[in-house]
Amino acid sequence: MSRVFKNLENYNKDINDILDEEAYDAISQGQDKIISEVFPDKIIPITIESGTDSYVLSTDASSVSSPRKNIASVKVAELPTGWTVTDGVRDYGNISRFPDPFLIVNNKEFVDFVNANQGLTGQPRIGTIIGGKLKTYPVPDNSVDGDVLKLYSYLSSSAGVIDDENEPDIGNNFDEALELYATSRFLFGKDRGEFLVQYQNEIRDQKGTVNRKSHPMNRPPVEGLL
Predict the structure, then answer these.
(1) For 44-174, where are the alpha helices, taking DSSP H only?
(2) Do 121 and 19 sit in the same domain of this protein?
(3) Within a 13 Å sphere around the CA of 26, how many CA atoms are in the beta-carbon half?
C-alpha cells in the first residue's frame, strides 16, 4: 500500500485524505480484476466428513458461515492416501471411465450414476460441481472421515479480504499490477488512463511469463464448471 501512496504523492494527491480502508478496497478491486483476466490457480483442500456429501469451494479460510464461492473450475483432484479402486464399491454399470479411484464428472453423469446406484456409502468415487460446491458419491462414511481431497482449481475471484492482516490471494508476481490498478482508482482523466495502460502492459507481460513456463492454467479444466 505504501507504493500506492507514493505514486499518488508524485501526482500531488494528499494521501491524508485517503483512508486505509479505501486503499485496501482499491487493492481488492485490482485483485479481482487480475483474477478475472488471468485466472490464476490454487490448491483447495477439502476435508472429507462422514455423512457429508457437499463441500463449499472457496479460498476463504475465515470462520464465517458463508464463505465466498470463488472457484471457477477444477482441473484435477489429488486423492488422499489409500483411495483405491479395490474398495468393494460397485463398477457403476461397467462405465468405461472407471476404475479410476475418483473422477469429477458433469452434472448429468453424476445424477445418472447416483440414480442407478442409490444408497451407497464409503469412499467417494465420483464428484460434480454445482452452485459453488463439490458434491461426492458414495456418501462418505467413517472409513474416509478426515481424509483430505486436494482440488487444483482456477479462481474466479479473491476471498474478498485484503487488509493489514490479510495478504492478497494472488502471487507476488502480480504486485506491480495491483499497485498500478489501485493507484488508478484515485486518479482521473489522463492520469488514470496512463496507469491503466501500464496495468494492462504488466498483465500482458505476466501472461507471457505463464505461457513460456507452460503453466497448467493454460490447460483445459475438467468437466464440471460452476
Answers:
(1) 107-116
(2) no
(3) 19
pTM over 0.85: no
In order of 83, 170, 182, 198, 221, the CA distances from 8 in angstroms are 54, 23, 10, 15, 40
Asked whether residue 53 falls in the same domain as residue 123, the answer is: yes
Q: Are 224 and 128 in contact (CB under 8 A)?
A: yes
Cα–Cα distance measured from residue 103 to residue 125, given in angstroms and rounded to the nearest whole number: 6
| Cross-strand partners of 136 | 127
pLDDT by residue for the chain (226 residues), tens only, comes to 788 998 898 888 888 888 888 988 999 999 999 988 888 888 999 999 999 999 999 887 655 567 778 888 888 899 998 887 654 444 555 454 455 688 888 999 899 989 988 999 999 999 999 988 999 999 999 999 999 999 999 888 887 678 787 788 788 889 999 999 999 999 999 999 999 999 999 998 887 655 444 444 444 444 444 4
Range of the domain at 5: 1-37+159-217
Boundary-marking domain end, from 131, 155, 179: 155
Q: What's the rounded Cα separation, in Å, for the pair 135 and 74? A: 13
